[in-house]
Amino acid sequence: xxxxxxxxxxxxxxxxxxxxxxxxxxxxxxxxxxxxxxxxxxxxxxxxxxxxxxxxxxxxxxxxxxxxxxxxxxxxxxxxxxxxxxxxxxxxxxxxxxxxxxxxxxxxxxxxxxxxxxxxxxxxxxxxxxxxxxxxxxxxxxxxxxxxxxxxxxxxxxxxxxxxxxxxxxxxxxxxxxxxxxxxxxxxxxxxxxxxxxxxxxxxxxxxx
Length: 209
Fold this sequence. Notes:
alpha/beta, globular, Rossmann fold, 54% helix, 5-stranded parallel sheet
């Protein structure tokens, strides 16, 4: 539960927070810190299970495609979607995730990724939208601590993950990920510690009219 007065004011004024991020820019870490400070849940990996239940796709498919879409995949989907009977797995998973985002936003929460900022804005749901970025060097250091990244070229992996996320975001929102006009605040987590980012966000929320 929130312990500080500013924390309590912040969650009362803006119950839904979204976090878009570059790979390795500490989106999940910031979500966890804000969740503890504000006493509201955050959703990141939970989306896999929820989307599987909603869409009928296997967890493995959603983990592979949930926020990832290559440029060739986008072109192929565009061509095939002209056929009345065709529905890509990407589209089906996105529709399931969209429904989950809107359901979760009915109560205070923090949502990481999944084009949540665009989905909520498009549906008139008030949200505080955050974008996190950092230098490649800072993100490399972060990626080295993750067990999932053993024995790989991390610089190429980061570049690939960023590209897949940008392509996915562009397809389903029509906007560029990282465009400052889509967010309430953009923060460099390579220069600003996550705890300080949380302080800044909560201070802004507590001051909103």
